[in-house]
Every structure is written in C-alpha cells, then in structure tokens.
Amino acid sequence: MASPIYLGVVGVGGVGSAFLQQLARLPNAPQLVLLARSSQTLRAPAPAYTPALPADWKAATESAGVTQSGALSVAEMASYLAAAPGRAVLVDNTSDPALASAYPTFLRQGVSVVTPNKKGFSSDLALWKEIFAAAAQGDALVYHESTVGAGLPVISTLRDLVATGDQVTRIEGVFSGTLSFLFNTFAPVSSTSPAAPWSQVVSQAKDLGYTEPDPRDDLNGMDVARKLTILARIAGLDVAAPDAFPIESLIPAELADLPSTADGITQFMARLPEFDSQMAAIKDEAAQQGKVVRYVGSIDVATQQVRVGLQQFPQDSAIAGLKGSDNIISFYTQRYGSNPLIVQGAGAGGDVTAMGVTADLLKVVQRLR
C-alpha cells in the first residue's frame, strides 16, 4: 500500500480555489492537513493528523475536530508539516514574497514545495541557489511549472532539453497573457475595421479582468522580466535579479510617478489617452514594413543577453498570429535547428494555472511514494 502523503495549502484566492476544486476530484489524493489564508489557519490535529480536511474552505471551517487558529508563522507551519507521520508537501498558491523567501525553511525539514509563486525563483540569485540547495539537503522536491506560462509545459520542456544535453541557444516569446491580448487587439494582423486607440484597449482589458487591478503592474514589464529570469537561470545563466537587464516599460514617463492608490489608478487611466499617438506611431512604423509590434521577452544564451520589450515581427510569423491572450514560447536549440520547439496556449487564468499546480503535485506525490 502506498505511503500517505500529507498536504498543506496556503492561499485560497482565484488560483487557490481552483486548485482545491481540482484536488477534490483527484483519486488517491494526498491528505489535506493544513489549509491557510492570510488571517486564519485550519489544521488536522496532531499527532495523528486525522481526520483530513475537506478540499473546500467553507466545509473545512465547519468540520468537526479541525484545529482553527490565526495565521501561523513560517516556522510553525514548517514544523507542523515536517512532524507529519509521512512525507509532506507545501502548496503555496499565493504571490507572497515573504513566504517564497522561506521555502528553504520547509525544504531543509524534508517538506517539498509546489507553487505558482514567481517571487522565490525570480528574485535574488542567492535565494534561487538556497532553495535548491535546501531541497537537496532535506531530500525534498521543488516544482514550479506554473511560475511561467500558467499550465503550459514551459519549465518542464526547458528542463528536459537541458537535462538530456541539448544546447539551448535562444528562447523567445510572448510571456504575458495580458500584453498578448493588448497587442493582438491593438495591432492585429488583419482587421476589417480600424483598431481602437491604445488607451481604449487597455481600458477594455481592465474591464474584462485581463489586467491586474492596477494595469501598470502589467505595463511595466516586470512580470515578464520575472519569467525570463526563471528561464534564463534554468538555461544556465546566473541572472542576478529581474531588473538586471533591459526592460521596456509601456508606462509613459510623465505618468510613472502617479501613486499606487485607487486615485492614482484613476488618474493613470484618465490621462493615458494623451499618449495614444505615441503608441499609434509605433504600430504604424511596423505596419509600413509589413510587420506588427508585439511585447516579447528574449534570452540569447550564447551572449548571455536577456531583454524584455517591443519588437516587430513579420505578419506571417507565429508570434504575430497569436489570438486572444495566448502565450507562445519558442526554444531554439542545437537539436531542433532552425525550426524551434514551440509551446503555445493559454498562459493566464485561474483554472489553467491551478492545473499546472495540480500536475506538479501529482509528479511530486509519485516521486515521494
């Protein structure tokens, strides 16, 4: 009989809720013994760690025998999971940098980590190295497929290429579902009617929920830069931090100092039409050459150059032909020659991101058992 695996889950927001729904449908799922959000923690009572919690926050709060408390410290969570009568896994469905920086605390105690949280893998290079050193020290596993491309097999593909000895020469693609939607709408390859002004497209994306509550968090390029940092490190480049290479921000310089408040967001959206002509000029310059403009990230492994920003692409290229909010990532390698290995599909959304997390959890469980 397979040994039981004990599971702690932090974060029950959009991705977290979708993950719990998927977890509830898994056959032979790990035993959920810890479920936490920012101000509350639910636990199966130690030392038996039974009964397991239902994979639903409301149902778990109403379950008999559940230990309820306020937020636990990292040390308390790690100690609780490490003391379980079997191997344990932490699933971090938050974007909390503090929790991400504490992954080594869990890993050294033998608690594996599965997460879509980019912060631990794209911040300081020392933390990246410490995470994997701690995993080796604690005989634990780290899976973070959904930190790039949501549920798309981007990280696993790159790791397989590297592990099997292929020489990755270049990685290029559209890494943001938000920016993909913006430019596919603003500068389509073909359209029967004039495209809307840039500010109107940004407003539409915000209304549809494609952007962060503050669209500047997408337009500054930092999310793409974090993803590029992760891939570059897997490809063997010691990228110090996501701001260690050129990032082209789409926030007009005149609006860069507006406060990160509700009023600041309102001011930004109100003034953005003042700069529509600048974006129109960029689009028209590309069109005059039979091209379209897209916001991409690129890694040149040979020259160790990483860049995030606007580039022009032929209208018949794969990047130009993207639809909606899809991502596309091209891996140029020695084996694949001039025709890259391409991963394409939905790169954002709670359900697909949670799918990547669930798939990682299944891989971890299989290896631990």
TrEMBL record:
PROSITE patterns cross-referenced by the UniProt entry: HOMOSER_DHGENASE
Reaction it catalyzes: L-homoserine + NADP(+) = L-aspartate 4-semialdehyde + NADPH + H(+)
Keywords on record: Amino-acid biosynthesis, Methionine biosynthesis, NADP, Oxidoreductase, Threonine biosynthesis
Binding residue positions for L-homoserine: E212
GO biological process, any: threonine biosynthetic process
Residues holding NADP(+): G11, V12, G13, G14, V15, G16
Family: Belongs to the homoserine dehydrogenase family.
Record-linked PANTHER family: HOMOSERINE DEHYDROGENASE, PTHR43070
Function: Catalyzes the conversion of L-aspartate-beta-semialdehyde (L-Asa) to L-homoserine (L-Hse), the third step in the biosynthesis of amino acids that derive from aspartate (the aspartate family of amino acids), including methioinine and threonine, the latter of which is a precursor to isoleucine; production of homoserine leads to a branch-point in the pathway as it can either be O-phosphorylated for processing to threonine, or O-acylated for processing to methionine.
Protein name (record): Homoserine dehydrogenase
